[in-house]
Specification:
Blueprint: H1 2-12, H2 16-19, H3 22-40, H4 45-58, H5 63-79, H6 83-92, E1 108-111, H7 112-120, E2 125-130, H8 136-150, E3 155-158, H9 165-169, H10 185-197, E4 200-202, H11 215-231, E5 239-244, H12 254-262, E6 266-270, H13 285-293, E7 300-304, E8 307-308, E9 318-319, E10 327-328, E11 331-332, E12 340-343, E13 355-360, E14 371-375, E15 383-386, E16 390-396, E17 402-409
């Protein structure tokens, strides 16, 4: 698990090679990772958060260490359903954005979903990327599943999934064991919906023996695994691949390796370069201007004729813009996934704060909740989202001890 996380850190930090020696970065990541793991071992998620926050304070003067710690903290906040804190954590080690405003004057704004569906008809591989701490990026893929299924896409692959993922999802819920980032509720919903629609779930990352422990080897092995599991068996197959950060890069990462081994052009969709920040000071000016002027309250793209705008057309085909997050009782509206809002009562935590509220389908051992939020105090009013059918709402204290459990029919 630790190896996967370290490789994901490398994929997310595109600037490390020019600012820090690769080997130094890895050594620092291993050192910090070991320290965090040692102090958080056996702890509940609620207990982990202040421990990692204290690490961040300790390493304020070390940019490399702070970057590693804040990425981990952001992921933990996402697991806890604390999106506002995710954005703040993401920007803690960020620098003020000084890049030039891109001219999109001659482009028209279009729905991202409809434009992707137009272009996906001409492809067999569609790749969406995400920032691993931004659960919002999983929502677009979630929304696209039904439309892509209608176009003949039958395979769903994700970077986070381990080799036993497919068999475990057959239980009707996602377990904590199928991957790391899938422990976040939106990701769990994404995988579960793909399975419910009928997609064959494909895992591919780190399945082949590693000799060099390089990014190039990882990407090559991943592409070969996808080819063997999908295209060697069904040359005309269509697959959705959900990845982190740079893996959609068509110059040298997974997308480029897939083309090399399958001779297929991949439709690559980026969500990580023009994004919302906790402070506009850290935003790309193109994003800030776009969301100020565009009224569309869904993911959008810029189109000119047959061309869809990309922040780096040599690396990916489409750049996605999400509107600024709107909140309902402290929860992002995009996190609802069209589910019903349920206000958490102040009595549910019985004055034992912080208090975790989980929504389960079965409440089986090791089941990833389909929604989750951490309530920090009595004045911290939050809500959770309920799916159709039975919803089991469980509240636990900071030690993971159950406070209450109720069943709500929706």
């Amino acid at each position: 698990m630790k190896k996967i996380i370290l490789l994901c850190l490398l994929a997310s930090n595109s600037a490390f090679s020019s600012e820090h020696d690769h080997e130094q970065f890895l050594l620092e990541a291993i050192k910090i990772g070991n320290q965090v793991q040692e102090q958080t071992k056996g702890k509940s998620l609620v207990e982990k958060l202040p421990i990692i926050e204290n690490f961040a304070k300790e390493y304020t003067e070390s940019p490399v260490a702070l970057d590693i710690i804040m990425q981990d903290l952001g992921v933990q906040y996402s697991f806890a359903g604390l999106h506002k804190k995710v954005l703040i954590a993401k920007d803690t080690s960020a620098e003020s954005e000084t890049l030039a405003l891109e001219d999109l004057t001659n482009y028209k704004v279009k729905s991202a979903e409809s434009e992707i569906l137009k272009r996906s008809q001409l492809h067999q591989i569609v790749m969406f990327n995400e920032a691993h701490d931004i659960a919002q990026h999983r929502v677009l893929t979630y929304r696209m599943l039904s439309g892509l299924w209608k176009q003949g896409y039958r395979y769903f692959a994700a970077e986070s999934l381990n080799s036993s993922a497919s068999s475990q999802v057959n239980k009707g819920y996602v377990t904590n064991d199928i991957g790391y980032y899938t422990r976040e509720s939106t990701y769990a919903n994404l995988v579960l919906k793909a399975k419910e629609i009928g997609f064959e779930i494909i895992s591919y990352d780190l399945h082949k023996p590693s000799k060099l422990d390089t990014i190039d080897e990882r990407e090559t092995n991943s592409a070969l695994t996808i080819k063997e599991k999908v295209f060697d068996k069904e040359p005309n197959a269509k697959i959705i691949i959900h990845v982190g950060y740079s893996h959609i890069n068509e110059e040298e990462w997974l997308a480029s390796k897939l083309k090399r081994f399958t001779n297929l052009e991949t439709l690559t969709i980026d969500q990580t370069t023009r994004i919302e920040r906790s402070n506009t000071e850290f935003e790309h000016p193109t994003y800030t201007k776009a969301v100020k002027e565009v009224v569309l309250q869904e993911p959008f793209v810029f189109v000119k004729g047959s061309e869809v705008w990309s922040s780096d057309s040599s690396k990916w085909d489409i750049s996605i813009f999400w509107p600024r997050t709107n909140y309902l009782n402290g929860r992002p509206k995009w996190a609802s996934l069209d589910r019903v809002n349920y206000n958490v009562s102040t009595n549910d935590c019985k004055n034992r704060y912080p208090c975790m509220v989980d929504v389960f389908k079965f409440n089986n051992k090791n089941e990833v909740p389909l929604d989750r939020v951490l309530i920090l105090s009595k004045s911290d009013h939050k809500s959770v989202f309920l799916s159709q059918g039975d919803n089991i709402i469980v509240t636990t204290d900071s030690n993971g001890n159950q406070i209450s459990k109720i069943k709500v029919q929706n």
